[in-house]
Amino acid sequence: MSIPVPPGFVLSISVCEDYFKNSRHIPEDLPGLLRKGIPFLESATGKVFGGSPPLMVSVRSGAAVSMPGSMETLLNVGLSRDTVRSLIARTGNPNFAWDSYRRLIEGFGRIVFTQDPSLYRGLLNSVIEAAGVPEEKELDYMELRELAGDYERLFFEESGRPFPEDIYEQLELAVRAVLDSWMTPRAMKYREIHNIEGVRGTAVTVQAMVFGNMSMNSGAGIYFTRSPWTGENLPVVDFRFEAQGEEVVSGSRAGTSGIELKTALPDIYEELEGIGDKLEAHFKDVQDIEFTVEEGKLYILQSRDGKCSPMATLKIAVDLEKEGLISPDKALKKLEEIDLNSISVQKIRSDKPPSQKVTLLQVGLL
């Protein structure tokens, strides 16, 4: 579809099925599959996994149904103290390299080894406070390098082993963590609440990394092609400069609005709008798009049908039918689980003069 997507390869859902059938033992052919896929990424990117210029990957879930916020993703896999040095030599940006490495250690501690994320957050806050800066992107490379060392020591204290330097061990552990996330209480509860049955498990996508934390004209964000709250045909953007995707997806950091992104990077915003329209026409539904900007270049990482409020779902279904994207029958099918009688719109009026009057619109369920 001529959409800029970083190259990747997929471990099929059968890997997940075998994993749980065999009491969470990695299938025997998994190491071979990984060693077959990585050379493809090296060829596609011109980078080397564990070499120079260094290739890093993200390891992502890929179930047949969308489960926002329920599955795990690991970023920057393939970084070690050796490859950090190669990354510095390649980019000339030690801040970016050490920041990416400390993020990997924290991600591994939290996701792979189920360590308390507040321990890492406490170390980060202490360094920020000592440096007298408002947030981590203001830290210099020496402070980030020291923080990475603190993270390594914390990882060892909590797990009883050093942070894995072997990059293929990192990759296998990351794949295992993504597979495990299919059966976490959070994911199981999501499937129960949303009556998701008969889904066999999750595939795993191994994808070349693109970096939203590389420079001032880099960042990560979420783009809804229409408002998930009101259903208006207006994009909703949550973007954070000098950040990686997990910060925005998890909500751990406040982002900027679409207006700010459009002002700062107008060409990126225009490209994003065009891609959003194309994906919406292809999937015939509002799209929730995860994207990264690396040094002024846009990459689309994921797109799925957006989860919307009942009022938004109603309006979007009607609008898509009017626009000729879906049939009346498809529009009605989208509303099968919505209690139309329970949707309300309330307006709160003020007695202030017209020049001072403010009208609030509340949309939701009574």
Question: What is the compact description of this entry?
Answer:
The chain is an alpha+beta fold and 366 residues long.
Key traits:
four-stranded antiparallel beta sheet, D-amino Acid Aminotransferase, Chain A, domain 1, 366 residues, Dna Ligase, domain 1, disordered C terminus, alpha+beta, 45% helix
Distance from N terminus to C terminus (CA atoms, Å) equals 42 Å
Give the overall shape, derived from the CA principal axes. Answer: globular
State the domain count: 2
Strand tally is 10
Q: Which percent band covers the strand fraction?
A: 15-25%
CA-atom Rg in angstroms:
22 Å
CATH fold-level name of the largest domain: Dna Ligase, domain 1
Cross-sheet strand order for the largest sheet = 1-4-2-3
Let me know the CATH homologous superfamily of the largest domain.
Answer: ATP-grasp fold, A domain
Strand count, sense and closure of the main sheet?
4 strands, antiparallel
Can you name the CATH architecture of the largest domain? 2-Layer Sandwich
CATH class of the largest domain: Alpha Beta
The number of helices is: 13
Query: Structural class per helix/strand content?
Result: alpha+beta
